[in-house]
Amino acid sequence: MSPIVIISIVSGLIILLLIIGTPIKPLRFFGQGLIKIVIGALFLFFLNAIGTKYGIHVPINIATSTVSGILGIPGVVALVAIQHYIL
């Protein structure tokens, strides 16, 4: 094979990978964000299930699920503190 054919095949594969990989990144970002929100809702569900003995209740909505999903356990603790001391 001549070098021109090899270079054109390699550059064609690189361009193909760039075109295919571009639309996947926003979907991956959206999917990861959605998974974090669902995990945050599960954190809040378990908090509400366990916290009923102690009078702890944090409503589950998109804002509280996002905070607890992105920040994790410290976010849940912050939501409980806000619910208890401020509201």
Automatic annotation (TrEMBL):
Keyword Ribosomal protein: no
Transmembrane segments: 6-22, 34-56, 62-82
UniProt KW Transmembrane helix keyword: yes
Keywords of this entry: Membrane, Transmembrane, Transmembrane helix
Entry-linked InterPro entries: BofA
Pfam families: BofA
Name of the molecule in the record: Pro-sigmaK processing inhibitor BofA
Organism (species): Niallia circulans
Gene this protein is translated from: bofA
